[in-house]
Amino acid sequence: MNMLIVDRIILLVYRNIVAAIDRIFLIWQIAFPVVYIFVAGYAYSAMIGDQGISLGSITVTYTSFLTAGMIGFNVMNGSTVAGAIIWNDKRNGMFQQLLVMPFSRPQYIISNLITIILIGLASAAAIMIIGLPTMYEDIEITLWSIPYTVYALVIGSIFFGSFTIILSTRIKSSEGYNVISNGLFLFFAFVSTAFYPAQGLPWPLSVAFYVNPLTYIVDISRAGIFSQIDMVTNIQVLVITLLAAVVFMIATKSMVRMKV
Amino acid sequence: MLDKITFNVKNGTVFGFLGPNGAGKTTTLKILTTTLNPSSGSVYIFGKDLFKNQLEIKRRIGVVTQNPSYEANLTTERALDLYGMLWGLRDKKTRKRKVNEVLRTFDLESIRNSKNDELSIGQRRRVQVAREFMHEMDLLFLDEPTVGLDPSARRQLLDYIKAHVKSGLTVFFTTHIMEEAEYLCNEIAIIDKGRIIAFDTPTGLKQKYGGGAKTIELTFKDTLDEYFVNLLKATINKKNGDKNSVSDKSKSNIDVNGKHTITITVNNVEEIISEVLQVVSRHDLQIESIAIIPPSLEEVFLSIVNDENKPVNK
Fold first, then answer.
1. Which among A92, A98, A99, A258 is the top mutation candidate for probing chain B, defined by the most B β-carbons within 10 Å of its own β-carbon?
2. pTM score
3. CB-based contacts of B165: which residues, under 8 Å, 6+ apart?
4. Contact check, Cβ <8 Å, B30/A22
């Protein structure tokens, strides 16, 4: 009965995975990017032609570029799990029930983040495997570069997981939560480098791209997959780490203050 | 808001915490179960400061909240199993045995494979209460646990709790149903406007606050006529009118129920009953049955709460 803190967090993660996550959501989590890779990827490739996309010192096909982008993008997509877990737990009374059990609020929030990281990494791996045929000619993973991709996925999960936690604790109605989160995530998704490169954009749009944290996550993850790590990648790592730390602290504060 | 409440709960007993809506019951419960921090004061559970030993105390308590709590996507069996696991029941075989025991005890076998989302409110409540018995505990908080349960499930639950209390469990019980409190509780505290206004055993409360009032229920073979009822009222009022100068507690309440039954609530039953029987005899009516009913806990509760809410004349 006398469990360690780590044990309790593991139990909560297990509980999140078996009880709080909707299976249809998990299928969608994989299906959505796959549809993008194979439909948009090949359709846009046909439009762009053979010129490819310039990435650091190399040029990759648009489908390779998009598949690598989808891996980063999926971290954001998966982070909505955190909001869903909190909403469902609040609506179904499980948040209060867990807090009267031998679990604390910090353990609850950490377990949610670990759940998102696991989902993010698992879905990224699944997309990597499914999308491999589209980018096998360009991919160049090394022991030096892959930690960048993994780090981008983990820090991206923390950033977007914390972000959805803040939204779900601050917004009172589920309709409001859906409208605001969908609106913001639409901005994050399409005003980023997930679908297209930032080079050659009009400067206001370029600024908007680099205000968007998803751009950093996608860029770092892509740089790892194609071994294109440079000074800019390291600066991006620093920026997204700081942003994730700030958002995580705000999320923790929001959760601690959340009324039962 | 709570106003300096103090109470002790004896080990191995059921402590009833009663009060009208908004009296402070749930606030008290939230403090005792660590989901709300009080602005001041102290709470000791198992002789330990709750705020310094939260985790240790939480490991030994069970809580059935007033609001439903359930895992929507899981079947009853899976939900119980998961709950057992969250409480540290690591061994799969032990969990399975415990799940089967709880399913059987709470008559949940027919819904073992139904998802929580598909259950009725009453069934969901039963699962919620049953779930708490997946783990060992020394103190159980039950916040209106029988809401939504049918009478047989309600009695089954109360009896199950009683059996556990006999083996040493302590229960903190809030309810609006006075029969339940009377059936289950060893001691009762009544809270209103954040203050505890009465505290005793159910019998003690009745003696202290029932004012000695009892109800005489007379059922006649003959149909009652208005003249007889008025005569009876006049006789009782005359008798108690004399008493009013001594004590205003000698109030009487006479009700006619249907064509054959009359109920008289007084606090001087012995005196009144002889007067009543004389009137009946003079009127040549035949009595089918006569019963003297002590005040119910509900009447006592209403009297305590209503007295508390009466404006004070200065």
1. A92
2. 0.81
3. B12, B13, B14, B171
4. no
